[in-house]
Every structure is written in C-alpha cells, then in structure tokens.
Design a protein that fits this description.
- The protein is of the alpha+beta class and 117 residues long.
- It has one domain (3-110): RelE-like (YaeB-like fold, 2-Layer Sandwich), CATH 3.30.2310.20.
- It has helices at residues 10-22, 27-45, 60-66, 105-111, and strands at 3-8, 51-52, 72-76, 80-88, 94-104.
- Strands 1-5-4-3-2 form a 5-stranded mixed beta sheet.
- The protein starts with a strand and ends in a 6-residue tail after the last helix.
Length: 117
C-alpha cells in the first residue's frame, strides 16, 4: 500500500500562516483553517477526492513552477478553494499531494480564467 504525504507550496504556506494568524481573532478564519485541515486529511485518504480541473483551464504558472500533470480543486468554507496536484514520492510506495494554493473564490476565478463570476 502506498503512503500519502501532503506538503504545501510556498504560496499555500504563506496563505495558511496568514489565515492562522487572523484566526486568533476571527471565527471566519478559524472555520477556514479547520476546514482546510479536514480536507487535507480527506485528500490523504482518497487522493482523487477533489474535482479534476480540465487541462485547458490550468494556469501556466502551475505548469512552469510545479511541472504539473494533474490539478484538483476542493471547496473550502466561505467559498474558498484549495488546489493540489499529485506527484511521485521519493520511493515508488509514496505519493505526494502538493497543495498548490489556498485562495478565495474571486482569486480562483481569475487564476483559472473564469469570466463574469
């Protein structure tokens, strides 16, 4: 059986730190951070948990920065989104879930080229 390891991109880590800091004083951010951690555990249990994003919608930045060959999207509380890709781990028995971004709905729509949402 393969082991699944979840890691954060630098961008996702910065966002999570910012949200966690704000969570000290905000129920909205507390809910969002808890939701994020819950969804990561769900992804680790089922690596195809998220909705697969069509190739034509992939941001070029993901292809350049992370050499992705798949992208999944998961809905978070407050209309936020988490995007991730699956990578091979250090051994053939390991799968890496790379969390690419944690973003609000407006940022997600802009990054993935949705208009008028």
């Amino acid at each position: 059986m393969k082991t699944v390891k979840a890691i954060l991109s630098a961008d996702a880590e910065v966002t999570l730190i910012r949200l966690s800091t704000k969570a000290e004083n905000s129920k909205r951010e507390v809910t969002l951070v808890r939701g994020f951690h819950k969804k990561v555990e769900m992804i680790k249990s089922n690596i195809h948990y998220g909705d697969k994003v069509e190739h034509r919608l992939w941001p070029i930045e993901y292809t350049v920065k992370y050499n992705v060959n798949n992208i999944f999207r998961v809905e978070l509380p407050g209309f936020w989104r988490l995007t991730y890709t699956l990578k091979n781990g250090l051994s053939e028995n390991e799968i890496v879930v790379l969390i690419l971004d944690i973003m609000d709905h407006k940022t997600y729509n802009k990054k993935f080229g949705y208009k008028g949402h």
